[in-house]
Write a structure and sequence with these properties.
The protein is an alpha/beta fold. It is 16% helix and 23% strand. It contains five helices and twelve strands. The strands form two sheets. Strands 4-3-2-1-5-8-9-10-11-12 form a ten-stranded mixed beta sheet. The chain has a two-stranded antiparallel sheet with strand order 6-7. It is globular and about 45 Å long. Keywords: Transferase. It holds the Pfam family CoA_trans.
Length: 221
């Protein structure tokens, strides 16, 4: 994973309450496990049937039978529990997951996301994203601010298929953090060295600026 992806994952950590049951989606979200402070006590869940996911193992400590939903190796914290995928989805659909951290291909002006299919490309399946958007109490998106071609990922309307009608609660990128409300997107935090002008130039959807914790706009880069 790149430095940018790790920065995004680290910026997600303040949105996770110690002790919360948290599902980490495939991609950037899985890196959050490596950035949680020691003793944070969040209970990380993966939909293939593990509660108590730990950080990524060292190469010489990989257990091929211990993987997350993206089939990448994980560790298990002391006290971790294992169960069928059906029980895992029962936790999700029953509202027992407090926070879900998902990746996204696009986010629209209302905070709805597209993260499971690109028209014209093969689709392996939606996975648990639809269930998590409907069942998790809080949904945080962890994504790069722009696509590989430099185009904005935060757009007025998604051109890719929506994952669900429910808007996410928080969008975290390497440059900024947005919250959502009934009126749409609200810029609440800027990464160091990033200014509002840069965010406006790289965000296609409209948003309000209400920086939290007394943060002031900084010079754009």
């Amino acid at each position: 994973m790149t430095d940018i992806q790790n920065r995004i994952a680290a910026r997600v950590v303040p949105h996770i309450r110690p002790g919360a049951v948290v599902n980490l989606g495939i991609g950037i979200p899985t890196l959050v496990a490596d950035h949680l402070p020691s003793g944070h006590a969040a209970h990380l869940q993966t939909e293939n049937g593990l509660l108590g996911v730990g950080p990524t193992p060292a190469p010489d400590q990989v257990d091929p039978d211990l993987v997350h939903a993206g089939k990448q190796p994980v560790t298990a914290r002391p006290g971790a529990s294992y169960f069928a995928s059906s029980a895992s989805f029962g936790m999700i659909r029953g509202g027992h997951v407090e926070v879900a951290v998902l990746g996204a291909l696009q986010i629209d002006a209302a905070g709805r996301i597209a993260n499971w299919a690109i028209p014209g490309k093969p689709v392996l399946g939606v996975g648990g994203a639809m269930d998590l958007l409907v069942g998790a109490r809080t949904v945080v998106v962890a994504t790069t601010h722009t696509a590989k071609d430099g185009s904005p990922k935060i757009v007025p309307e998604c051109t890719f298929p929506l994952t669900a009608q429910r808007p996410v609660d928080v969008v975290v990128t390497e440059a900024a953090t947005f919250r959502t409300d009934a009126a749409g997107l609200v810029l609440v935090d800027l990464a160091a060295g990033t200014g509002v002008d840069w965010v406006r130039a790289h965000t296609a959807a409209p948003f309000r600026v209400e920086l939290e914790d007394g943060l002031l706009p900084q010079a754009g880069h």
